[in-house]
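#struct-help
A.M.: can someone run this one for me? Single chain, 404 residues.
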Amino acid sequence: MLHQDQFRDLRSLTTPDGNNAMLAGIRKLAPDITARAAEIEAARCVPADLIDHLKSVGIFRMCVPRSHGGLELALPAGLEVIRTLARLDGSIGWTAMTGSGGSIFATWEARETYDRIYRDGPDVAVCGSAQPAGTAEPAAGGFRVSGRWPFASGCRHAEWMAGFCIMTDDHGKPVAGPHGQPLVRGFALPAQNWEVEDTWHAAGLRGTGSHHIVLRDVLVPAANFFDVEGGTPCVPGPLYPAVRHLLPMFHSALAVGIAEGAVDELLTLAHTGRQQFRATTPMRDSETFQYELGRISADLSAAQAFCETQTARLWHHALAGTLNDEGLLVEGTQASTWIATTCVRVVDACFALAGSSAVYETSPLPRRLRDIHVAAQHATAQQRQYVAGGKLLLARSAQDAGHA
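D.P.: on it. Structure tokens below:
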């Protein structure tokens, strides 16, 4: 485990100037983002002009390698950007998170396909769905692909989209993978090849435009397929070889940012001098409010510290080339689950402390509440992930006992 001083040293060594420039650009965009929160929710996607502003700041290039014009930010630096945006608006933070993840997944394409994706520059919005919701049948020149993929966040502004398929034989029967399970491969195509179904009527993260995307018997070249588990990225760099291990921390940074935003909103409300009905003092002078605020602050500080420490641990292994270990994947996912759960508790408490003023749509706290609950529903952060953590602990303890 890395100590906090080691984390600071690691971050200073691996954070390029591009991160500071991005954070400065985000600060300039902040008033526009917060002023347009209702517009983003109503449209159920980020407006095109705001996407252009995010591109100009560098959001979609921050995980693209320098060889292709990207910033190739270190993991701690990239997560700081996601957290900063999520603190302003959950949907904007989610857009940055999925855009960054998409650009990392893209490195697993064949080099010729990857070069095609970025031939016009690094500011390419790549989105997709990780669910194996399609089938790919062999055909001359590639595979015939059909499917309907959910949760394709950002598909309205994407330039390339990716999905995962169960690979089949010529008769449509699933091909067995190395462990007997159906063989799954990912693939990517330009956005114009896909159909978008308008299905994103969601409880939270409404501005992410996470609709279904569809292909109907489309020929996909073999060079557009990739293997996340058994393949290798087509470009070098510590961000790319173990993408599954790093992505849980992207979700953690998002959750922390949303929770920080909720605390910001609660403090703003308290500083207005608001006095709730039948209360004897304003909120900020109430010991009950102060007690609850202190407890919330402690929870948030714990989530922030866990996120930073686990990020530093994984990045340390990524730099050393030792990240591709199932134990580290379990640890990262376990951390993501705990952080998301803690951040849900923080936002719930902020909403409750705000009293009746928080029930109106004019308050930003209901949006924070909806966003964090939907974010915590993601498979990466669900409570069932603790099972793998428990199994890992049992296996390690048994091994230790055997060596005693």
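A.M.: thanks! The domain at 4-117 is CATH 1.10.540.10 (Butyryl-Coa Dehydrogenase, subunit A; domain 1).
D.P.: also worth noting: The longest strand covers residues 142-152.
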